[in-house]
Specification:
Structural class: mainly beta
Number of helices: 2
Distance between the termini: 91 Å
Largest sheet: 6 strands, antiparallel, barrel
Strand order of the largest sheet: 1-2-3-6-5-4
Strand content: 35-45%
Shape: globular
Length: about 210
């Protein structure tokens, strides 16, 4: 009996992780824009805000090829998160987990394109504290991946070696691949679901004659 090489075992494990995550991934199309998304709750899909067109219809395609219309519940450009409602959606909910990821660990991006899985594999290049995006949104942790993210893979799930999804992959400044962590997604998506927007407190000055 021939024993599989360590490389073959690693390759098989990666393929298994990708296959287990794929059912929760959807393709998202809006006015000539194509990206990925994932099922956050039953009937609700998360996708990057920057990939959605400002107007026009939105459609999602499940991993089995079923195409459904989606409606926009809310979007937050500051954290690059948009929430969609999809009636009749059968894809399973992705199990997002808040976890401490470490630099040097391996990670997968599981996305979708052309009715098939789209996978990227690489390492976690950097992990840092909470930071503010260029649009002022608070991201709970800075996670950068050492891999090239295709445009259509934006919105895919970032998965660790145990198969746990720890965030959503997006394109950052200067072509970097960043992850919006699970804590940020859950916090923002709950506000979008309840209010249609993220409520921000502010101070202002009013003038009168």
């Amino acid at each position: 009996m021939t024993t599989a090489s360590p490389l073959a075992e690693l390759s098989a494990s990666i393929a298994d992780l990708a296959a287990a995550t794929t059912p929760s991934i959807v393709e998202v199309q809006s006015r000539h824009s194509l990206a990925s998304g994932f099922v956050w709750r039953n009937g609700l899909v998360i996708t990057p805000d920057e990939t959605l067109a400002d107007e026009g219809s939105i459609e999602i395609e499940e991993s089995d090829g079923t195409v459904r219309s989606a409606t926009l519940i809310g979007r937050d450009a500051a954290t690059d998160i948009a929430l969609l409602r999809v009636e009749g959606l059968k894809a399973p909910v992705a199990a997002l987990a808040e976890m401490a990821v470490r630099p040097g660990a391996l990670a997968l991006i599981v996305a979708a394109a052309d009715s098939a899985p789209l996978i990227a594999f690489g390492g976690i290049a950097a992990v840092g504290a909470a930071w503010q995006s260029m649009r002022g949104g608070t991201i709970d942790a800075r996670i950068e991946l050492d891999l090239r993210l295709r445009r259509r893979a934006e919105g895919g799930l970032a998965v660790d070696g145990d198969g746990s999804a720890f965030g959503m992959a997006v394109r950052g400044p200067r072509g970097r691949t960043l992850v919006i962590p699970a804590a940020t997604i859950d916090r923002v998506a709950r506000q979008l679901l309840d209010h249609g927007r993220v409520q921000i407190a502010y101070l202002g000055v009013g003038l009168k004659d």
